[in-house]
Write a structure and sequence with these properties.
This protein has about 180 residues and is of the alpha+beta class. About 40% of the residues lie in helices and about 20% in strands. The protein has 2 domains: about 110 residues, Beta Polymerase, domain 2 (2-Layer Sandwich); about 50 residues, no CATH class. The strands form 2 sheets. A 5-stranded mixed β-sheet has the order 1-2-5-4-3. A two-stranded antiparallel ribbon has the order 6-7. Strand 4 and strand 5 form a beta hairpin.
Amino acid sequence: MPLDQDFRDALTRLGRVFARYQAASGDQAVLVGGATVSLYTNGLILSGDFDVVANADAAFETAMRAQGFVREHRAGRLRIGWYHPDCPLYGFQAVSGALFDGRADRARLVTIITDATGCVLLPSIEDMIADRLGQFAASDGKDQRMLDQAVLLKQLAGAADLAYLRRRVVEETGDPSLIGL
């Protein structure tokens, strides 16, 4: 199931935010969480949340506003984060802290060019598998969706760096045996 046009439009707008943010702050924002899983699975797993690791909050906020994003204020929505009036199905939020607590290898970031003026950075698929297994472990094994996502990502990973993957899974307190490592 390919990603729908609304998701792609939201991603394009976010790519422009990332470019503006990097120009202003010198830092690179990284898309994490469910939207990244949606991208790696080409829409087999869908998410309405775009979570972003961005260190310079003021610069990120300025970049979001410059691209037409507004603070979430709609009824029935959590009053955190942002949305874009042209992409109302999706929520956008800056999450705090270093990328995976500083454990992810930033040299492994994946770049998706969204249009002539923007691009989005993603963690490596190995980091996302580790994240999903860590999320599963943190839920005391109750959030089966996280395990299912990790398994699917591992199946789609192709020639993954298994040594790096095993290390990252352990760092995220996940169980490598759940994905055959």
